[in-house]
Specification:
Helix content is 36%, strand content 19%. It is of the alpha+beta class and 507 residues long. The protein folds into two domains: 15-251, 2-Layer Sandwich (Nucleotidyltransferase, domain 5), CATH 3.30.420.40; 265-448 and 469-507, ATPase, nucleotide binding domain (Nucleotidyltransferase, domain 5, 2-Layer Sandwich), CATH 3.30.420.40. The strands form six sheets. The protein has a seven-stranded mixed β-sheet, sandwiched between helices. Strands 3-2-1-6 form a four-stranded mixed β-sheet. α15 (388-414) packs across α16.
Length: 507
Amino acid sequence: MNDGGANLSNEAPPSFAAIDLGATSGRVIVGTVLGEPGAERIELTEVGRFPNTPRREAVVPDGAEHLLWDLTSLWEGIVAGLRCAVEQFGDGLAGIAIDSWAVDYGLLDAEGNELGNPVNYRDERTKPVLERVFDLVSAEAMYASNGLQIQPFTTAFQLLAEERLGQARTMLLIPDLLGHRLTGVARAEITNASTTGLLNAGTREWDGELTQALGLDLSLLPELIAPGSLLGTVRPDLLAELGASRDIPVWTVGSHDTASAVVAVPLTDPNAAYISCGTWSLVGLELPEPVLTEPSRAANVTNEAGVDGTIRYLKNVMGLWVLTETLRGWEAQGHAVTLGEALAAAAEIEPLRTVVNIDDASLLPPGDMPARLAVLASASGQPVPQTVGEVARCILDSLALAYRRSVRQVGELAGREIPALHIVGGGVNNAELCQLTADSTGLPVITGPIEGAALGNVLVQARAAGVLPGSLAQLREVVARSTPLTRYSPRLERQEAWAAAETRAHR
């Protein structure tokens, strides 16, 4: 896996730039490998951070307005971050890799030119598609192939609503699209490809039969590439722009950010569950094989490809999006509330006063979250959250309740007795949510690392470059040496209250 070599400097320890893109912000984080063999650790340095703000604009050819990602702005932030990485780490920079959110894509024409900005998965263009897609392929047949839960934003559904397909020759998911900008090479990394709905969960190859049944052109899908492979090297013109004095390899990693985050989960028990907690929350298990049973399909549990041939057996949960969108809405109304203020206010409110189904479809698009929470509360006969504290409390309790249900579901369906729960990602900083998760699930919760996706990204790069040893277990030992971990014990006396709340939320 070290084709192309890294040409590591004898003077500087090897460093790897992780371009880690979330649905609300992007970062360029450099991980430096320190320590002697067998005692390696990773030191992370953030060298760039930038907003990721979608915007509404018309899409050719028919001019309909859609919610799009601003790829120009993202690219500017990436290049600025890489320039800083080169300035700070020089010849020690041994690689670059990209991870991002899943399902969204860009299109290339026959000459390799991009056909405008990618559409945001929160755009509502797939609504009419979902009404007819199962006339083409049954839900049972689709799950038997791709193993994915039904989500309106799955790439396959987006492609069926795509207005630019007539001009397109290649579809590239966001990390692959940016990898093409970096290297000129168009490939589809497998972990993210598994979120498209067009990858066979068993074979890890594009499913030609399913693609054809959906009326999509298989030639649109690029050659697959495994995480830990050399994609190429940075284009000469871009190298000059970055101020680099030598070639820089571009590696593939778990390009779905959750796949990278799972690499960085310091699992010591194979039966432990994890939550990658950010804008979205992914609750799941690491398995050797997909679970493609009818009960699994009925429960809407997804099977996505992980690093080293693993399966990420997951439930998607709405995540911290509801809280961040609430704060954004209050600010837009002229009543700015910080996250710290919202959490402090929530702490003063009676626990489990009002709980809702946080995965309700009404909470997916941007908009007035408190108003939508009020509708859900009223419909279930519960007190309507009015104050900042009541709204924040409702969101936190409801999110912890969703974790409770999801952890129980994935454990039962996979036949696993879950002994503990790991949380990685930005949610690690929310101590109240972490404790509520321990309380709701009745499981000990171990939190860390915070920058799980970036750290997992760096680990796979370093292994591909021959700098770190080979197995996932060994990489996770590096994680444990590199980051502080915090343990939350469940308050078991509250289990009855959580069980009653679950009934109310899904009344």
